[in-house]
Design brief:
Layout: H1 5-20, H2 26-55, H3 71-74, H4 79-95, H5 131-137, H6 145-150, H7 160-173, H8 182-194, H9 207-217, E1 225-227, H10 234-246, E2 254-255, E3 261-262, H11 271-278, E4 281-285, H12 291-302, E5 309-312, E6 326-331, H13 355-366, E7 367-378, H14 380-383, H15 387-398, E8 401-408, E9 421-427, E10 436-439, E11 443-445, E12 453-457, H16 459-467, H17 472-515
Helix pairs in contact: 1-7, 2-7, 2-8, 2-12, 4-7, 9-10
Length: 516
């Protein structure tokens, strides 16, 4: 969420400007904000690419075919001219970003951090005299998902003065310096404005929790990663960044105060490996309005996934038939609500209407044999007594391998929900012989509505214990340490019980005295 007071104030001020300027539909306001932020960050990435090219003494091919399309140029124009430039040139340009042109206007180095690339279409080799005929018979390539999503997008800021005010406000926000997933934070802000956060289970997963899950599941460049309820694509973005981090020379890496990496060049990935990995991140979401899809696609593109595979789909419905396609699934599906049983895919439990149970069965269907998943579920999945809950646990333990359970404190999703949750780690196939379990009490933030940073955090220990779960020496050392702590705590527990007994006796005597 937007926790920085200065940034929150700036976003609220910008929101008010858009509202008073005629964008009184919150969905329109968040979409237009996202477009502007997208353009701003594209320009910053172009500057970053130019700077790195100079430092490495390498040639740099600009992403923008015309420098007049860049934020740094048109925001300096007179207000009316700036609006005209954005509506007639800049916005049509970004609408076609996912569409491979016959000749790319320019491609930055494929290994620059968060580089945006316009992909060139593959040229098929033709042989013989039927070359022209075969070319005519070739079906036209299907539009890129981003191109399809942007087909009906509109730039709805019609006042020149409002555009300039909004751009100045975004410049003042210093988005790049915030070290935040701004698109996801704006989605969160939108939900708070709509007063529906948590009502439909549509609240954003905190970024530090996403990063922990990704590091624990350890995705590899060759593995296909899917989020069937992707929202703003936070899991896919973090999985991509993790892979880049593992394949970047340490001399290029730096880490901010929250431990998030920067300088993700990916210079240790081969060109063919880079190109293949780009296609391995797939997301689906059932946002019929497409606003969140556009935000999710822009989020992926801003982080280097140049042609996002993020599509509209109700993944629980009969129309969605994918099966056994992915090696890794990362997700935080909607917790609340029930769906129409008549439209549930026949491969899922027909009599169950709870989305968290249905998604669990969906994850198992989507994974190939040996595939891994890290997914967030409400505690009801672990302890519910209904037939659907029991069947889900039986499928996880007896027909697959439940590798671990990470229990999280109930305040992780505040201020939107106080529900107790857990992260399940499982592998498709085999049977469960033992289950790693960790009861996390602190995640580095206060567990109230403010969610302010605190020194206490179990996250580093969670990761260490998970990575060492098969190490017998580590387990033995851990057991000895726990035994020592229990021995030290025993006298304190006894003293606590004595104090409680004294308090109860004094209260009892006080009540008796008042009665007499």
């Amino acid at each position: 969420m937007l926790t920085d007071p200065a940034l929150l104030s700036a976003v609220k001020s910008l929101w008010d400007k858009l509202w008073s300027g005629g964008l009184n539909n919150p969905l329109d306001a968040i979409e237009q904000l996202s477009f502007l932020l997208f353009l701003k960050r594209m320009d910053e990435q172009e500057e970053d690419g130019e700077r790195k090219a100079r430092l490495r003494k390498q040639p740099y091919k600009p992403f923008f075919p015309d420098p007049k399309l860049r934020w740094s140029y048109w925001t300096q124009l007179e207000a009316g001219k700036a609006l005209e430039t954005v509506r007639e040139k800049v916005f049509p340009f970004i609408k076609k970003l996912g569409q491979p042109p016959e000749e790319a206007a320019g491609e930055p180095n494929a290994k620059e951090e968060t580089a945006l690339v316009v992909a060139k279409p593959a040229k098929a080799e033709k042989k013989g005299k039927d070359k022209a005929k075969e070319a005519e018979e070739e079906p036209a390539p299907e539009p890129d998902p981003f191109t399809r999503l942007m087909a009906n997008a509109e730039f709805k800021i019609n006042k020149a003065s409002l555009l300039i005010e909004a751009c100045k406000a975004i410049d003042a926000m210093q988005v790049s310096a915030q070290n935040q997933d701004v698109q996801g934070d704006l989605y969160e802000f939108l939900l708070s404005k709509l007063n529906t956060a948590g009502t439909n289970g549509q609240f954003r997963t905190p970024r530090h929790i996403i990063r922990l899950m990704v590091r624990m599941i350890d995705p590899q460049p060759h593995e296909r990663v899917c989020d069937p309820a992707a929202g703003t694509c936070g899991f896919l973005v973090n999985a991509w960044q993790y892979i880049l981090e593992q394949h970047t020379n340490p001399k290029h890496l730096s880490y901010d105060e929250d431990g998030f990496p920067h300088g993700l060049v990916g210079d240790r990935m081969k060109p063919e490996q880079w190109a293949a990995t780009q296609n391995n991140f797939v997301g689906y979401d059932a946002d019929s309005g497409m606003v969140m899809h556009r935000i999710g696609c822009m989020n992926l593109m801003l982080h280097g996934i140049t042609r996002p595979r993020f599509s509209y789909a109700d993944t629980l419905s009969k129309a969605f038939t994918e099966s056994g396609q992915y090696e890794v699934i990362l997700a935080n599906p909607p917790f609340k609500g029930a769906i129409d049983g008549a439209d549930v895919n026949p491969t899922l439990p027909a009599k169950c209407k709870k989305t968290e149970i249905l998604f669990l069965h969906l994850f198992l269907r989507l994974l190939e044999q040996g595939g891994r998943a890290a997914v967030i579920v409400p505690d009801g999945v672990l302890f519910g007594s209904s037939n659907a809950h029991v069947a889900a646990r039986k499928a996880l333990i007896e027909e697959n391998r439940l590798d671990g359970v990470l229990s999280m404190p109930s305040g992780v999703f505040k201020p939107y929900a106080g529900v107790s949750t857990a992260i399940l780690f499982f592998t498709k196939g085999a049977k469960t012989s033992s289950i790693w379990f960790y009861d996390m009490e602190h995640d580095g933030f206060s567990l109230d509505d403010k969610r302010q940073g605190v020194p206490e955090s179990d996250l580093p220990d969670v990761l260490t214990c998970w990575q060492s779960r098969h190490d017998e020496a580590f387990a033995e050392k851990r057991s000895k340490r726990l035994a020592t702590l229990k021995k030290q705590i025993a006298p304190l527990k006894a003293q606590r019980l004595q104090l409680h007994a004294t308090i109860h006796r004094l209260k009892f005597e006080e009540v008796i005295a008042e009665a007499e």
